[in-house]
Amino acid sequence: MRNYFKMSVLLLSFSGILISCGGEKKEDKKKEKITLNQNKSEKKSDKKKDKVPASERVALDNKGVGPITNLELADNIDQDMANKGKGVYDKMCTACHKATKRFIGPAPAGILERRSPEWVMNMILAPEKMVREDPLAKDLLIEFNGSPMANQGLTEEEARQVLEYFRTL
């Protein structure tokens, strides 16, 4: 009799587990997963439509992070400085940047319409720090497939010459 009682309790416990675990139909689970996945893909496509690429985003109030905190540009372009900057740019930057079109990195043409002079100088002088600490630089890194800008070891004077060249593009 004891064995019969133990078997009955065991059987009832086992069937209770089966009932509690199998309460939902497989079809219901599939529909739920499909719905969740559709919502995720809809959110992603909405973000892509609303978000302006970092390379096109205007952020003139962002000075970036690095050694340059304030830089005033003269109204007129210093052509001698710009010529020196073109020489530096041609020697150090053209492996990744094309003046007027997207390449491994963004095109510098029109950069001062989207970025502050301080931001550009800090990106040239301290690209590692910018990518670590500046949100826009992080977004650019993502937009350009994780290709970080190499620190070319330019002096502030050389970076300023390059910036002056960018004003001529």
From TrEMBL:
InterPro entries: Cyt_c-like_dom, Cyt_c-like_dom_sf. Residues 80-169 form the Cytochrome c domain. This is C-type cytochrome. It comes from the Bacteria. Pfam families: Cytochrom_C. Keywords: Heme, Iron, Metal-binding. SUPFAM superfamilies: Cytochrome c. It comes from Mesonia ostreae. Residues 24-59 are annotated as: Disordered.
